[in-house]
Design a protein that fits this description.
mainly alpha
Length: about 625
């Protein structure tokens, strides 16, 4: 009791230091980057979660279908934080601040675990490592559910550190893991080490297991029931597990996230369509997930050597100093943030130190064993089954911080041989961490610059968009992205009135992707703006000879012929487009041709047909009304 009392006076100052450091780092980061366009800009999964938040604010509490993306709960958190809906990117400042406060609280939890296991100094070091981690500031502040994951890990570690297993303590652990799994379902792998820790529970093994199951079920079962009720399919949390297995294991897998290019902008819809095309019938989300899991495990079984090579690469990426981007790039943000560059507790420094700390401080007791197993099963699930990104590996940072604190404090009390063993382990891990990563997983700065250009485009700042696109082209974007960048650069230049610059960019884009219909259309429309409709006709007609069944090409031909006043030929081309499924815009162009020929009856009919397919087109409605008023 006296020993505990002696420690109490030292707890509060250490708590203030850790909490103060965590809050200061996060406040400075927020102030520094709050005006940086990418800081508040939602991309990829964030857009899905924001859409779900707006649905909730609109009264759709349960949503539609089975959850595909990993976090069913994050949409509700966004809705709670946004309150009045998403009207501008800056509305998300409150959400970012809430996440950063949770991140600071995680540093405090990490301090508490270190103090419980190793005393005040160990707690102080552990808390400061997490508080001053650039990854913690960056990933916890991103508009994704990832900020809940380190908090989950630290909370489980704290419950375990506070005492031996009991039914009530196991219920708390199960509830924490269950809630965390709603942010990322693979946190359920923590149940395995918890079961090891729970052996010999004082409350009886069955009673303890019931407590654990009840805790997990408290959060997971409502989501499972919701999927069955709303989506009509039995899915535990989300249905993307099989797709992620397939992305991580196959002939084109790189060890990082590398989905097939045609899936990139619509992962759920396009992966489902590909699976259904392969089997020849419609599939439920769980069937799609099982299909891709079967494909992944089939590849593993058929290519064991390639799989082992992939596992080795993922292990390398897991310990690497390089932060593999996914959605947002810590490497790029660090170039714009003094705070991120200045924070010392980087992954590549903490991981070797934590490895040494584990060797120096490990004791064969349940609490230490549980932390070790939690790290092992989580890292194993990523390295063995999925793929590595910076934000996917980061949730174990609280445990690494704890081992760092324990190791620092154990150094004085261990023999020379154990010190040497820890130093050797740290050296080996450090060599792997600082080795140059495989070039195919290194993401060009162009990745972030493309997102930046998209933000400027949505804001209507086309000159800033042009600057970002030109910068992206200068940093050696991959070949398949150069056409995309040039295409967007042409459109941005056209919006500023630089027609010659727009034509130059779109011509270069077309040279890189001559078969891309969208690129051709953009180039043709720019030629129309430049008064070169007649010169654009041969480009379209050459493509029609190669693809006579393409409705888009016939539409372009009709549009160009209308511009050159060859109305009969334009009508013929547009009718061909309509017969091939050209849709409302082909009808609208046909109506304009008939108006130019003063054939008002046919023009009225064409406007009406187009409005049947696109009834909310305002100009078409006005033109139809003007014709009807002539009578």
């Amino acid at each position: 009791m006296r020993a505990m009392d002696a420690r109490r006076p030292r707890q509060f100052p250490h708590l203030l230091v850790v909490a103060g450091a965590a809050l200061a780092a996060r406040l400075l980061y927020f102030i520094e980057l709050r005006s940086f366009p990418l800081f508040h800009s939602p991309t990829a999964d964030t857009l899905k979660y924001l859409g779900r938040a707006n649905e909730i604010l609109g009264g759709q509490w349960l949503g539609e279908g089975v959850y595909f993306h990993s976090s069913p709960v994050y949409g509700y958190l966004l809705a709670l934080g946004l309150g009045s809906g998403v009207s501008s990117p800056l509305d998300m400042s409150a959400v970012v601040w809430f996440q950063l406060l949770v991140s600071a609280a995680t540093a405090v939890l990490t301090w508490a675990v270190g103090r419980e296991l190793g005393g005040p100094r160990a707690g102080l070091v552990a808390g400061l490592v997490y508080a001053l981690s650039p990854g913690a500031v960056f990933y916890d502040g991103a508009l994704l559910a990832d900020f809940l994951l380190p908090m989950t890990v630290a909370s489980v570690a704290l419950v375990v550190a506070r005492g031996p297993p009991s039914p009530s303590r196991l219920f708390c652990v199960g509830a924490v893991i269950g809630f965390g799994s709603l942010a990322r379902p693979n946190l359920l792998v923590f149940l395995a080490p918890v079961l090891v820790w729970a052996r010999g529970s004082s409350g009886g093994s069955m009673r303890s297991m019931l407590g654990l199951v009840a805790g997990v079920s408290l959060f997971v079962l409502p989501v499972t029931a919701r999927n069955a009720l709303v989506g009509g399919d039995l899915v535990l949390i989300s249905s993307n597990g099989g797709v992620n297995l397939f992305i991580g294991n196959g002939p084109d897998a790189t060890g990082a996230f590398a989905a097939p290019p045609f899936w990139a902008s619509a992962l759920e819809a396009r992966s489902t369509a590909a699976a259904e095309a392969a089997v020849g019938h419609d599939m439920t989300p769980s069937e799609v997930s099982r299909f891709y899991a079967g494909e992944a495990f089939g590849w593993i079984a058929g290519h064991p050597q390639a799989y082992l090579g992939l596992v080795a690469r993922r292990m390398w990426l897991f310990i690497s100093a390089y932060e593999v981007p996914n959605h947002m790039d810590l490497n790029y943000f660090s170039r714009h943030s003094l705070v991120l560059r200045g924070l010392p507790a980087r992954w590549a420094l903490v991981l070797p130190t934590a490895a040494a700390g584990l060797v120096w401080s490990y004791r064969r007791e349940r609490r230490h064993t549980l932390l070790l197993l939690m790290c092992a099963v989580y890292a194993g699930s990523i390295i063995g089954l999925f793929f590595v990104t910076g934000r996917y590996r980061f949730p174990i940072m609280p445990i690494l911080a704890i081992w760092t604190g324990l190791g620092v404090c154990a150094w004085r009390h261990i023999d020379a041989r154990r010190r040497l063993a820890g130093a050797v382990v740290a050296g080996l891990v450090g060599v792997g961490a600082w080795a140059t990563p495989p070039p195919e997983v290194v993401v060009s700065e162009a990745y972030s610059l493309m997102h930046l250009a998209g933000v400027h485009q949505r804001q209507g700042d086309h000159r800033a968009e042009i600057a970002a696109l030109e910068a992206a082209l200068e940093v050696q974007a991959p070949h398949e992205r150069r056409g995309y960048l040039l295409n967007n650069l042409g459109i941005a230049r056209m919006m500023t009135g630089d027609i010659d610059g727009a034509l130059d960019a779109s011509a270069r884009a077309l040279a890189l992707a001559p078969d891309n219909a969208e690129t051709l259309q953009n180039h043709v429309m720019m030629m129309v703006k430049a008064g070169a409709s007649r010169e654009a006709l041969p480009l379209v007609e050459a493509r029609i000879s190669d693809a006579p069944g393409d409705a888009q090409l016939w539409f372009l031909r009709g549009r160009l012929l209308r511009e050159t006043q060859e109305l009969d030929s334009a009508v013929s081309a547009l009718r061909q487009s309509i017969s091939l499924g050209g849709g409302a815009r082909a009808w609208f162009q046909l109506a304009l041709c008939h108006e130019a020929a003063e054939d008002w009856t046919r023009a009225e009919r064409a406007w009406q047909q187009g409005l049947l397919e696109q009834p909310d087109h305002p100009q078409a409605g006005e033109r139809l009304q003007a014709i009807q008023n002539r009578r």
